Amino acid sequence: MNRKTFNPVAALATLATALAVTMAVLSSTAAQAQAQGADVVKRDFARTVYLHSATDVHNEQPQALLRAVVVLRVKLDDQGQWKAEVFRDNPEQPEMTQRALASVERLPAPVGLSAQARQVLQSQGVIEAWLFEADGRFALKTLAKPQKRV
Fold it and tell me: Is the dihedral of CA 86, 89, 91, 94 positive or negative?
């Protein structure tokens, strides 16, 4: 008869491995949930910009050669107001940067945000690209259709 004796060191090592694997799975799941939460926050932000800038937005495929691309980081300040900083602009088209900033400035303070969404918007904010057509209308990259090819 082949009897195995209890080895506490081996049992502890097996338990530690199982715990490490469980923690890795939970961390991965939490990171995925947070990333998905951030994506939802970004889409909701883009929809809000579209709603409050309807006359400045286009919903067609962006043209192949855009007039300008402006990238902003938009956050909520401590008073719940939107604040934008320019990440990238086109120095030859400063009026497009002003239009992108104006579309953020006219946004009302958000209501009904989950605690997680508010935390994301206050700490990280969202980084969004305004894709300007030749006529000055824009689409936001998050919601834009695929760009036309040359």
Answer: negative
| Gap between the Cα atoms of 69 and 127, Å rounded | 13
Q: The domain 39-140: what is its CATH number?
A: 3.30.1150
pLDDT band at 16 (very low <50, low <70, confident <90, very high): low
Token look-up 């049992």 returns 11
The pTM of the whole model exceeds 0.90? no
Which residues partner with 127 through β-bridges? Answer: 73
Give the dihedral sign, CA 130/135/136/139. negative
> For 123-150, how does the pLDDT look when each residue is reduced to its tens digit (9 = 90+)?
999 999 999 999 999 999 999 999 888 7
